Structure formats: C-alpha cells, structure tokens
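Sample 1 of the test manifest.
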Amino acid sequence: MRPVHLPSSLAELWDLMAAHPGAALLAGGSDLLVRLRQGLGDPPALIGLERIVELGRVQAQEPGWLFLGAMATHSLLLEHPLVREHLPILRQALAVLGSPLIRNQGTLGGNLCTASPAGDTLAPLYALEAQVEVRSASASRRLGMGDFILGPGRTALKPGEVLYGVWVPQQPAWSIAHFEKVGRRQALAIAVVSLAALIARDESGLVTRARLAWGSVGPTVLRVPAAEEALLGRPLDDASLQAAAQLARQALSPIDDGRASAAYRRQVAGNLLLRLARRGS
Ligand SMILES: Cc1cc2nc3c(=O)[nH]c(=O)nc-3n(C[C@H](O)[C@H](O)[C@H](O)COP(=O)(O)OP(=O)(O)OC[C@H]3O[C@@H](n4cnc5c(N)ncnc54)[C@H](O)[C@@H]3O)c2cc1C
C-alpha cells in the first residue's frame, strides 16, 4: 500500500517533500489517480494538499490582482462572487469542464499542472495574461502562463516546488469575453479545439484590443499575435474575422489523434473566431 501523507500547513508540506523526494502531490486526484490506475507512474507515496487551507483561498489580495489558490476546486471558482464579477471568461470555461462530480473534485492547480493543451482553464488564463506563483521551502517565483506550461504534461515546476496559486491582473473593460470549446459530444467532452477571446471596442465599434488563445491546436495553448493585430482598428465583421481566422489557421500547429484530424482542428479553430461576429453586433 502506498502511504498518503496529509500536511495541514505549508511548513509540514516542505518537511514531507524533503522526507519523501519521490512522492507525488495529490490535489483532487481526478487526473493523477486515473494515471496511476492506468499504470502510468508508481510514486512511493502521495502527499495530499487538501488540508492546507491557504492553498484554497480566492481573494482580491494585492491591489490590481485577484488571487486564485491552487487548491480552489472548479465548483468553488464557478460560484465565487469575485470570479463571477471579474472573470466571466474563466467561468464560461469552468461551466463546461467535465461533470459536476469532476468540478467538485478537480482543482485549478491540478488542471494547470496536468498541462494538457485541452485543459479548459488554460486558454482563458492565457488570454487574461495571468501569472502563476510557484513556491518551495525557501523561495517564491511568479511566471507567465507560457513560461510555466512547457508542453503536454510538462511544467516549469522543479523538484521541491508546488504551484501555490494563480494571479490574475485587473482587466480592462472588455466588450466581449467569450470561451467556447468544441468536443466530440455535448457533456464530459475533452476539447478538440477551444478558443478564449477578449475583445475591446471603442464607441464607434472599432476593435482597440484583442487577445485570442486557442486550446488543443498545438503542444500548449497558443496566442496568435498576428490574428490579434489583424482585428485592431477594424469593426468586428465577417471580413476582419475571416482575415484573422486565416492568420490563425496558418499559425496553429494541431496534430491528428483519435479525437480529430489536424485539418479539422485547424478549420474549426478559425471558425470559432467567425462566431464572434454574432456576439459583436
Ligand atoms: C471523467 C473526467 C472528465 C474530465 N473532463 C475534463 C474537462 O472537460 N476539461 C478539463 O480541463 N479537464 C478534464 N478532466 C481532467 C481533470 O479533471 C482536470 O484536469 C482537473 O482540474 C485536475 O485537477 P485535480 O485537482 O484532480 O488534479 P490531480 O489529479 O490531483 O493532479 C494532477 C497533476 O497535478 C499535480 N498537482 C496538482 N496540484 C498541484 C500543485 N498545487 N502543485 C504542484 N503539482 C500539483 C499532481 O501531482 C498531478 O501530477 C477530466 C477528468 C476526468 C476523470
């Protein structure tokens, strides 16, 4: 039997991590336990994070920033008044992540550390230009999403480090905050393609800022600066969105897998952008 340790403070966590260097960190277990059951990995021990209260906090902590603790569950975030008020795009993604059971069990930190390009919270956090805070017994560092997520299943976490939480900067007023995922079925679907789009427009309807992040179309979530720039100074109409969609399709690097072909993913990635015309009018 594999022992499970349950520290109730960060101080206890650091001691346990030092004493059990090969141990795996356990958040909600909805990814990790599935992998272990499939025989992928055999850590000598598990260290559960559920009793460390400060990892579950959601707060407006520093001026201009919201803090979302790594152990905040998807359900907690979905219902939290700060997320409801300030992060509608993250809420949209949380609402379609897994099932109620998975949302009760799974955590934001687990979703990020799994580092799947299909992880539903990732594309909104790239678009929101969030930062992650990583801590060890002796230090803390903050990284942008693109510096934290290195590839499928790979993050910048070093031995002895944990993901402490996510910092989301206060957002400018967005005219459109939109997340959409296409899966192979309506419920419990892993994204075949997803898009997080934040668009600001001036009084005459011209785009002043655009942030576009696609999931499941490359080894990590991808922003496409050329597509974002193509929208600037233009109305959000079919012509400007078609131009941006074309640039996105060229820049994205999807793969064929059991769920969809690369060609299908590239086509749908652009099509998701075209749908913003309806939301923009
Ligand atoms: C049936 C089913 C449906 C699913 N549907 C979706 C879906 O629609 N969308 C989606 O995005 N995901 C989905 N998932 C995947 C999973 O539920 C999510 O990724 C979830 O957020 C993982 O969080 P967790 O707390 O359960 O992570 P865990 O399984 O506990 O951990 C995952 C990994 O992260 C590491 N880890 C966790 N927390 C930390 C931390 N604070 N610091 C360092 N490392 C840490 C663990 O060691 C482990 O390697 C689904 C899973 C299942 C089983």
